[in-house]
Specification:
Blueprint lengths: L7 H6 L6 E10 L3 H13 L4 E4 L6 H10 L5 E6 L34 H7 L2 H17 L6 E5 L7 H14 L2 E2 L4 H9 L10 E2 L8 H10 L4 E7 L6 H6 L4 H12 L2 H10 L2 E3 L2 H9 L2
Parallel strand pairs: 1-2, 1-7, 1-8, 2-3, 3-4, 4-5, 6-7
Helix pairs in contact: 2-10, 5-6, 8-11
Length: 288
Amino acid sequence: MSRGQEGRANALLGYPADARLLIINADDLGMCHAVNEAIMRALQEGVAQSTTIMVPCPWALHAMERLAERHGIPFGVHLTLISEWPSYRWGPRCSRDRVPTLVDESGFLYPYERMAEFLAQARLEEVEAEFRAQIETVLAAKLSPTHLDWHCLNVGGRPDIFDLTVALAREYGLAVRVYEQSLIERLQGLGLPTDDHFILDSYKLQTAGKSAHYARLLRELPVGLSEWAVHPGLADGELLAIHSDDGAYRRQSDFDFVTSPEARAIIQEEGIILLSYKPLQTVWRRTS
C-alpha cells in the first residue's frame, strides 16, 4: 500500500489520520474445547478483541453457549468449507444431499490438500446454501455477529465466492475481512472500511521466537488499520491428539502472547488503538 493510502480506514472509521489501529481476532472458536477455552480467556484476560466461530465444528454449540453467557463479546462467522485434520473432521450444516459438491467421498467437507479440486467443482448455489445455514445457525441462537471471514480460504478461494460473501454481508448487516490489495481498494472506494494492510495469519508463523516476533511487529505497526488473525489454543491432550504437526504448540504460543503482560504493555507504550469489527460493521450497515 502506498504512503498516500495508509490509514484510509481511519477516515472511514472516524480516527485521526496518523492513528495505528489493530484488530486482534481469535480465529477457530468452536473447533474443539481446548480452543474454546483459550479464546474465551484471550478475550477476557488478554488483548484479543474479537473472535470468529466455525459453525460446523463439534464444539460450536459450546462456543455459542459461552458467547450467549457473555453478551457483548464481538464475534464473526468463520465461514467453513474445509475440514483439514485427518482424524478430526466435520461436515456441512446443510444436509449432504443439498450440497453434494461440497463434500468428499466420506461425506465430510474437503480436506485442505484437496482444496483445488474442491474449488473447481463447488457449485455457487450450494456454497450460498451452506453459508446461509452457518449464519442462520448463529442467528437462531439469538447471537449477533459482527462480520464474516473464511476458514482456510483466503477471500473465499474464488472471485464469485468472495462476491457472494460481500452480498451476504450486506444482506445481514455485517462487515467482511479482506486480504488482497485490489479488493481492499475496491471496497474502501465504496466507503466500506476494511483492513488497510495484508492480514497477519499467525498460524503461518514459526513457534520458536514467536513472542519476540509479535513484540517487534507491534512496535513496527504501520499507520492505518491492521489485523492479526491469531489462533489461541491450550496444548492439552485433546489438541495434541487433533494436530498431527506442531499446531497445538503454535496455538499455545499465540495464547501465551496475547494474554501476556508484555503484549498489553507494548500496546499501551506504542499508543496502538485496539478495535473489534463492531465499528466496521456500523459503517457497513450505514452504506447498505
